[in-house]
Structures are given as C-alpha cells and as structure tokens.
Design goal:
Elements (H helix, E strand, L loop, with lengths): L4 E5 L4 E8 L2 E8 L4 H16 L8 E7 L3 H18 L3 E5 H13 L3 E7 L5 E8 L5 E10 L1 H7 L8 E5 L2 H4 L1 H4 L5 E4 L7 H13 L16 H7 L5
Parallel strand pairs: 1-4, 4-5, 6-9, 9-10
Antiparallel strand pairs: 1-2, 2-3, 6-7, 7-8
Helix pairs in contact: 3-7
Keywords: Cytoplasm, tRNA processing
Main location: cytoplasm
Protein name: tRNA threonylcarbamoyladenosine biosynthesis protein TsaB
C-alpha cells in the first residue's frame, strides 16, 4: 500500500514541491535562486489544496537532503522539519543526486545516469547510478565532492563502450574537463533535481521502513568543514 507523501526541495536553484497520493502526483516547480523562502510554502499549500488534503492527512514528509548550496539545503530541511513537527510526521531525506537520476528516467527512460552538480570552488558534487529491475537505483560511485580533473583521472580506466547519461549543472560548468571521460556521454538535458522525483524515491524508502523522526534528520553537505567555517565566529 502506497503512502501519502509530501516532498520539497530547495537545495539548488530550483524550488519544488510534490505530493504523491496513490498513483497521482501533484507538483509545483520554479527556478528561483533567491526566492526559495517566498515560494516554497505557497507551493505546499497549492498541492495540498489540489489534492484536497491537509498535512495531518499525510503519512510522511520528504525533503532534498543535499548535496547542494549550503543556504538552500538549510532552508529546505528547516521548513520540512517545521512542517513535519507541526503535523507529527516522520521524515525521509532524499539525495539530490539520486533525484537527478530518477528525473532522467522519468523524462527519457534513461537507466545509467552520471550526476554532477556545480559545487563552486572548482568542484562538483558527483555520483553515478544504475536503475535496477525493481525500480531502485544502485549507487555505482558514492556521493562525493571532487575536482573535475581529479574525477576524470579516477575514472580513466572505465569501459569506453559504456554510455552514461549526464544530468546536473556541473556538466556545463566544467564542460572542458568532464568531456574527456573515456566513456560515451549522452546529455539528458536535466539540470535540477525535482520534488516529483524525490517523492517517488521517498515512496521506496517508506516501503522499506526507512523514516526518521524530526529530531534525527540532518542535511548532507559533503563539504562539512567549509560549512562549519562559514558559521559566524568559526575559523
């Protein structure tokens, strides 16, 4: 039996919300780099109203746990925790990189996806995923933050006959370096993770009983030391 799950994400330039009820998905999305705090709650209200539900009717609340911009990830988890706490809902954190892979599958049926989000500071947030027959994703390369040139070196011995779809902003930001991979690249055209893909992954997590109470949820920065240093008074 499927759960009624609300997902929201503000980890990148895109701001998105999705609600899954049975086979129906209600979603809103907008690229609004500086307006996440203004856009996200009205989007939540819109999808709930469209579905005729309230937060108290839901089974869980999912959120984009990162990686992504430090500010965006913090905004997303903060709002998600507030909503979940008020409605007494368990939470499910979803990788923004995995959401990109799911989005490439939703839009084009792609099953092998190399995800790279521009992490600034001459680095990318990276992971590769292969879709399994049961609809889940196998993480071939674990999430990491890495310089493009170093990543290319690490994957230099990959099978040149393999084809990988590309997704995320990192490919355009570091096109010169990342275009030198030994394997074949196929552009998916997908730039940002979307809540409508996160809610599908969250449903899988729900079915496996992988939820957390509000107080145990946490973001994934992959660059924790930098995030720590950015806090006032930290050196």
């Amino acid at each position: 039996m499927s759960a009624k799950i609300l997902a929201l994400d503000t980890a990148t330039e895109a701001c998105s919300v999705a609600l899954m009820v049975g086979d129906d998905v209600y979603s809103r999305s907008e690229v609004a780099p500086r307006d996440h705090t203004k856009k996200i709650l009205p989007m939540v209200d819109d999808v709930l109203h469209e579905a005729g539900l309230t937060l108290q009717d839901l089974d869980a609340l999912a959120f984009g746990r990162g990686p992504g911009s430090f500010t965006g990830v913090r905004i997303g988890i903060g709002i998600a925790q507030g909503l979940a706490f008020g409605a007494n809902l368990p939470m499910i954190g979803i990788s923004t990189l995995a959401a990109l892979a799911q989005g490439a599958y939703r839009e084009q049926g792609l099953t092998r996806v190399a995800c790279a989000i521009d992490a600034r500071m001459s680095e990318v947030y990276w992971a590769r995923f292969e879709r399994q027959s049961n609809g889940t994703w196998f993480e071939l390369d674990a999430e990491c933050v890495i310089a493009p040139a170093l990543l290319v070196d690490k994957l230099a011995k990959e099978d040149a006959d393999q084809t990988w779809a590309t997704a995320g902003t990192g490919w355009a930001a570091y096109q010169e370096s990342l275009s030198t991979f030994p394997f074949i690249l196929q552009d998916s055209g997908l730039l940002y993770p979307q809540a409508q893909d996160m809610v599908v992954l969250a449903q899988q997590e729900w079915q496996q009983g992988r939820t957390l109470p509000v107080e145990e949820t946490s973001p994934i920065y992959l660059r924790d030391t930098v995030a720590w240093k950015k806090l006032p008074g930290r050196e």
